[in-house]
């Protein structure tokens, strides 16, 4: 375990909390020291939920370690049941409390509480948040779901959406609509919006829709084996994947595939005159495995981008992403260290990043536009409006999300290019507000050497630095590096405007 400024995933008990917070009638008793209650903020501040997570903390302190922390846990369990009267409880320890080995599951079992209690064994120092969510849902399903008669009409369970999930709330609406169009009703959506009593009815559905493998695959595999329910393998993110998903559901159910594409605008927008200049843009992808795999297909097949690199942070999906990267003829980056990701982005110098909140910050530092496609995300990625990633409307949303940073970036570049123009300079005021153009008072250009941080032995002269700024921001970094390499190979340590153009001619061959 190592400390980091940023982390892509929290510890596994945060994943368990995502499941508990997504459900109703379930309570989580977490054996944790004072201070581990920070996780509440993820839901109330980042997701903007209007109520606290259903979690009771033991909040033991340093002075309690010399006494009976186990008794603190038992007291917390009893008080939590008496106060909240849940249909079921889950119990476990945070990463810090795991070190004192109090065995919350064993203690809760011996207490004889009047509701089902699901013990969680989440290895905090080997696994992460997505595993915690996946394992928690699996344990709840394994304890509560029982074989039962199928519904008279074809129904499906939606498996995987959780609290704090990237657009999970809206994806549920979109996938429900896709199924209803084929005459299929949703039996239970779990864990989002379900109760422990609902979990007991999972077996009544004819099949399961696995929406997010990171948080629902273990439960789906168990239900396939124990309840005889097949589950979908295709995640309907993007136009092609949505069509494939509908065909997969048709194969499972024997129904005719049906998909209304009336609302679909992405293909038209992608081929419109305004978008053709985006064709061939070099993009780098990073995030959770499911969203990266979906984004790679959309980028190449539906947007006309060139995927120059991809990777994921959740090692459970590493094999899938490595196989996909091989298909795209790029090298997969599997890492939990954002500095590794930043180094790879600098090396590849893409024109756009499709990533997480981390890559948004990296893009700001490197001057590369970034669209968020995956958790971890910040508050702006929990919009009040309807904004799914899945299905027909999800494809439209994705197009807007990806293209707008490029379009706005081009506008910024043009404004910067013309900022010295007599009409558009900073002191002129907005011409569309009736401001008259003012002559700009010119100041002499500096003649001394511009000391921009570069390689130790290479410096940029002022005229070259000024000319470099005329290059669009999304390729400026690559132009700078190529010029420095060109100069270094020829023993030139001062880059003039002539050196810049010589390097441009050299790399254009």
From TrEMBL:
Lineage of the species this protein comes from: Bacteria, Pseudomonadati, Pseudomonadota, Alphaproteobacteria, Rhodobacterales
Domain of life: Bacteria
GO molecular function: oxidoreductase activity
Binding site for [4Fe-4S] cluster: 36
Gene behind this protein: bchB
Name of the protein: Light-independent protochlorophyllide reductase subunit B
Pathway in which the depicted protein is active: Porphyrin-containing compound metabolism; bacteriochlorophyll biosynthesis (light-independent)
Span of domain Nitrogenase/oxidoreductase component: 12-406
Low complexity composition bias: residue spans: 444-453
Keyword line: 4Fe-4S, ATP-binding, Bacteriochlorophyll biosynthesis, Chlorophyll biosynthesis, Iron, Iron-sulfur, Metal-binding, Nucleotide-binding, Oxidoreductase, Photosynthesis
Active site: 274 (proton donor)
Free-text comment on the cofactor: Binds 1 [4Fe-4S] cluster per heterodimer. The cluster is bound at the heterodimer interface by residues from both subunits.
């Amino acid at each position: 375990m190592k400390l980091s400024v940023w982390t892509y995933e929290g510890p596994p008990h945060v994943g368990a909390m995502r499941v508990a917070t997504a459900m109703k009638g379930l309570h989580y008793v977490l054996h944790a020291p004072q201070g581990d209650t920070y996780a509440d903020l993820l839901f109330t501040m980042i997701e903007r939920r209007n109520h606290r997570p259903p979690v009771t903390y033991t909040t033991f302190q340093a002075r309690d370690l010399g006494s009976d922390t186990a008794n603190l846990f038992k007291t917390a369990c009893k008080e939590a049941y008496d106060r909240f009267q849940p249909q079921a409880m889950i119990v476990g320890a945070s990463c810090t409390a795991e070190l004192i080995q109090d065995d919350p599951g064993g203690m809760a079992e011996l207490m004889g509480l009047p509701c089902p209690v699901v013990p969680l064994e989440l290895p905090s120092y080997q696994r992460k948040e997505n595993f915690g969510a996946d394992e928690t849902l699996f344990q709840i399903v394994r304890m509560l779901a029982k074989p039962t008669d199928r519904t008279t009409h074809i129904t499906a369970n939606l498996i995987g959406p959780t609290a704090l999930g990237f657009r999970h709330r809206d994806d549920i609406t979109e996938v429900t609509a896709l199924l209803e169009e084929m005459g299929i009703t949703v039996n239970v959506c779990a864990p989002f919006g379900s109760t422990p009593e609902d979990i007991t009815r999972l077996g009544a559905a004819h099949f399961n829709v696995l929406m997010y493998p990171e948080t629902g695959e273990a439960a789906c595999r168990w239900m396939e084996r124990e309840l005889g329910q097949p589950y979908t393998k295709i995640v309907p993110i993007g136009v092609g994947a949505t069509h494939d998903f509908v065909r997969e559901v048709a194969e499972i159910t024997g129904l005719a595939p049906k998909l209304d594409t009336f609302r679909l605008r992405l293909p038209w927008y992608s081929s419109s005159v305004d978008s053709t200049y985006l064709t061939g843009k070099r993009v780098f992808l990073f995030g959770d495995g499911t969203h990266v795999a979906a984004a790679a297909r959309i980028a190449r097949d539906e947007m006309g981008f060139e995927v120059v690199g991809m990777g994921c942070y959740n090692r459970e999906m590493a094999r899938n992403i490595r196989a996909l990267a091989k298909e795209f003829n790029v090298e997969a980056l599997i890492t939990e260290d954002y500095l590794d990701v930043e180094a790879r982005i600098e090396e590849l110098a893409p024109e756009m990043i499709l990533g997480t909140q981390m890559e948004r910050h990296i893009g700001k530092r490197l001057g590369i536009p970034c669209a968020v496609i995956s958790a971890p995300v910040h508050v702006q990625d929990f919009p009040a409006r309807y904004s799914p990633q899945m299905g027909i409307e999800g494809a439209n949303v994705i197009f807007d999300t990806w293209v707008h940073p490029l379009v706005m970036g081009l506008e910024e570049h043009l404004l910067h290019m013309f900022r010295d123009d007599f009409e558009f300079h900073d002191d002129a005021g907005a011409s569309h507000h009736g401001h008259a153009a003012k002559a700009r008072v010119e100041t002499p250009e500096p003649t001394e050497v511009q000391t921009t941080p570069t390689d130790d032995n290479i410096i940029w002269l002022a005229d070259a630095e000024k000319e470099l700024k005329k290059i669009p921001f999304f390729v400026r970094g690559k132009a700078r590096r190529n010029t420095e390499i060109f100069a270094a190979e020829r023993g030139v340590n001062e880059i003039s405007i002539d050196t810049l153009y010589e390097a441009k001619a050299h790399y254009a061959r």
